[in-house]
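task queued by scheduler; priority normal; single chain, no ligands, no partner chains; default sampling; output format set to C-alpha cells
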Amino acid sequence: LDYIRRLLRSYAAYVCNVQRIAQARCPVVRFCHKQQKIFCELSINNHLAVANTELVRYFLLFEPKLRSLLCTIRLWIKQKDLLGRGHRFNTYTLFWMIVCTLQLDNKQLPSVQSLAERANHKRQYGPWNCSIPDLNQIERNISDVPIGK
C-alpha cells in the first residue's frame, strides 16, 4: 500500500489527500480526484469488497429505476442536511436502506439469499456465500411495476 500511496502522490495534478489507512479492518489508501471531487478508497485482496460491489451493480442493473430512486432520495436527504460525515447518512447506507425496503415491503427486489441459491457459479469467501446469478439467468417479474407502488 505504501507503493500505491507514493504512486498516487506522483499524480498530484489529478489527485489530492492521499493517505494510507493501515489500521482499517482491511488496509486502504484514500484519495480524492481533484477535478471530479470524487473520494476513493483502494484496497488490495479484499474479495468481500469486490463481491459487495458486484452485488450493488447487480441490483442497479436488475432494476434500472433503482438508480433514479436513489438519486432522488439522496437529493432530498442532502437538502435536509442529513447527508455527509459524522452522524449523517452516506450514499452507501441509503442504497441498502432502499434495497431492503424494496425487498421486504413489496418484494420488488430479490433477496440476497435467493440470488445466491439461483447462481450457477458458487463463490465462497470464508463463511460468506457471495454467489449471484447472471442477470439473464433469472426472470424479472417487476419490470412493469413502478417502484413505490
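post-processing summary
- Confidence is low (pLDDT under 50) at residues 141-145.
- Residues 47-62 form the longest helix (16 residues).
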